[in-house]
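quick one, 228 residues, struct below
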Amino acid sequence: MRYQTWEPVYRRILADFGYDRTGDERARDALARLCEPFDHRRLPALTGTKVAVCGGADTLADELRMAREADAVVAASVAADTLREARIDVDLMVTDLDKNPDTARFLTAESVPVAVHAHGDNVEMVRQRVPGFDDEYVLPTVQCEPTGPTENFGGFTDGDRAAFIADRFGAAELVFPGWSFDDPDVTAEKRRKLAWAERLLYWLEQRRDGRFALLDDRRDAIDMSPLP
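---
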């Protein structure tokens, strides 16, 4: 996805949450100083494949078969821990470092790519943690306009960003073990983030001219009005 396509959506996210673009740009610059351009050849070969985009919901433990049967596995944040405990290889981790940065560091040391995301709320975490990663396996991502080695593939939360990355690199089919949009125990802000994740996946589904099973029976209730 080109940034020009993503930018109108990004502006609506900023407005909805009251975020400051300059915070994202400060985080981008901090990440850019710590990274080299990522060699996309280090990513798993996703073109034409079935990719499991694994979320961190409790249901993941009951849906591991979907990951095992996929050609490649992309893990959002803590999903990587559940998968590793089940002895399922993670081909790419996507994280903003807020929950399990040690897992991300370990994976880069094992030559597994990690898409490290910088945004206005995690500047210090980026500065503290990324220098300990194997730089060759850090794919630096941002949600604002990318500069230097940083890249923007679209997406807002770790989970939907993982789906946008898989799409960008040619996945033919996306399946979604470990996802839940209706967790009653999350904060109000997290609930709004999940609503954005849902509508962004619906948008991605439409762009792919396909159907994601996790949106079945939900599409009519998704508020797409914030999207351009």
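The helical segments are 3-17, 21-34, 64-68, 79-85, 101-109, 123-129, 158-168, 188-208.
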